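Hi L., both proteins are below.
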Amino acid sequence: MSPRPLAILGTGLVTPVGLSAPAACAAIRAKVASPMESRFLDSAGEVIMTCPVPLAEPREMPARLARMAAMAIEECLDEVPPADGEGLPVLVCVAEEGRPGRAGGLDACLLADIEAELGGRFSSASALISLGRTGVASALTRARDLVYEAGVPRVLIAAADSLLGEQQLAALDRAGRLLTPGNSDGFLPGEAAGAILVGAPAAPGTAAQLVVNGIGIAQEEATLESGLPLRADGLLRAIRAALVEAGCGVHELDFRIADLSGERYYFKEAALAVVRVLRQSKDEFDLWHAAECTGEVGAAAALVALAVADAACRNGYAPGPGVLVHLSNDDGRRAALVLGYGD
């Protein structure tokens, strides 16, 4: 086990298939999907299908992201006494800078907008992390420093992202990345927000918890658009680093959750990485991917994965207590998390 493990103490989700963690995780377990016709057409004149969050008050970006994030945070802190929730460090993960169609104004106003939605103030240690799907891994690394070096008892990590803006959809369509009747090698764009509360694990013998035991981050040179042959070197390095921190082998883990959303490149990468890291035979190593229900949700994908893992372990339908989560950015950044459930 890592010398600096982080326990997941609470979760919150806002997704196209559920506006709370229990509802969303139940829908994902049942493989409920909710694609809807958007008001946009692709370059072939076909209606673009999307997976929107059913908010009571439709809003434009980035106000929509702030509202979704605030809803997830409120759920995550629902059982935390108000006094304990005041002044928490909050690390908010959003789309990477330079992503085509990224909502404007995120870096300047999103933290303040979420504070306004919640009616409170975050700790001065709070920050916005603009690293896309791998951002939560960096947030967990920063949370470990706050807990084990700065003496902060708990840290809240949130994420919010949407691929449903007009400019975003147009950029994805031009790149041929949308799932359409004429393109099977694409994904359904979606949106979501999530939150987790993390801190040092409870003493042995208390209630079981899902614990982050290993974190690995690396860079892949053979990105989606590089034209280089894919060997999954970056993801392999990230997984190996997370396994070393956790002090275990991948054969000791029971299932995987990934941010895969439909593109062949990322499925091939996931398969190559596991084949190269697995040194002992395994009869089964299930691969779960929530995007088949929520659509591609960008920076929120990691928190969806962590909430799904937590629900599966707590409710007894996980294949076992050891979980590998792996994440891949279009810009080549890769991340992996090794989780363990127990008391």
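That was the first. Here is the second:
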Amino acid sequence: MLAVALVFSSRALAQVSPAESTPATLALTLQQAQEMALQHSTAILNANLEVQKAEASRWQAIASMLPQVSASVDYSTNFGYQMDLGAMKISMPPSASFGVTTALAFSGAQIVSIQMANISRKMADLSLHKSDKEIADQAKLLYYSALVTDETIKLLEENHESLKKLYEYSESSVRVGITEQTDADQLLVQVGTMANSISSSKRQLEMIYNSIRLLLNVDVDTEIILLQGLDNLVNQESASELLTETFDVEENYDYRLLKESTELARKQVALTGWSSGPTLSIFHQYNTKKYFSDDVHMNMTPPNMMGIQLNVPLFTSWKLGSSVKAARTTYKEQLNTLENTKLALNIQHRQLTYNLTSAMERYDTQKQSVEVARRVFDNIAKKYEYGMASSLDLTNAGTSLITAQSNYVQALLEMVNAQISLEQLLNK
């Protein structure tokens, strides 16, 4: 069957047309990219495994308080030996025995261990949700970065085409003696510099796409197509709504994890105290014995036996007190860290709100600056064609336009980053 399968697979591969062997294309909206990243993220897979480990540890703690049952079977022989009691002899024939033991043990430490296991399970769930949010935000940031870089390339290409036209016009003017060769050379340098900037931006865009491929766990040759543009995604109204959101520190994943960790430290104090507490044990044992002989023999094995034991430690040479003191100190440190984190998160919220407000204002300003710089450049370019402006004026106008466009793109990316950072803090 394997040989037949290999033959058919080789024939199928041989019949694949060149069109069918082209790299795959993946067209995604922002939401689809986030969903796909969540499905293939190694961090999410590991977080799910941590949840499973925490659940297993929880049941392990619970099982310590459930009945423990064990069974035993044995066979023994004395090779025909008989016990001589003077007036009579008692045979000790071969025998086999079977026993079942059921035991239960109760202590305060077991109860505290179950409570700590429940807290660990809750922390694993919180870490999973936090990883989900981080991966989704990472996909969002890469999606926006690709769109912003692509917008940068389009702006540079527009400038490059304008400069090439001006250079061609300048060369024509040089040939008829209207313009000096140095003016054309200056434009040629600008054209080359712009071409280098375009190439650099394209390489940067490819790096971003490679990061997206890695996040989505797709082949390096897969073509990524982003179905949504900046016009559909950049929404200043939604960003403004974030500024009015009330920050609830209890909803922040980092704070919730630290809070559960503090509760875990508190339970550790109780666990340390109960480690030298009383332990109650109950057991029941059933035994049956079979002798392989009809001779007179003596069976001294009781079929049923039950016992109760209470173990109370009396003196631990101050070891317990020292251990409890160390656990309490750790708990106090966690409380201080929790309070400081709460304060830091509130300050961070205020700072991120300021950052988003400033980024939005800067974005509006730079957007207007680009429009003004474009009109100035077009005006100077027309004057240059009619001989009413020098190449230096044109170079300065072109530099101002490039600077304005660069500042606009940077402001756009800063606004996106500020919005995502605030959304992460607000758990949106």
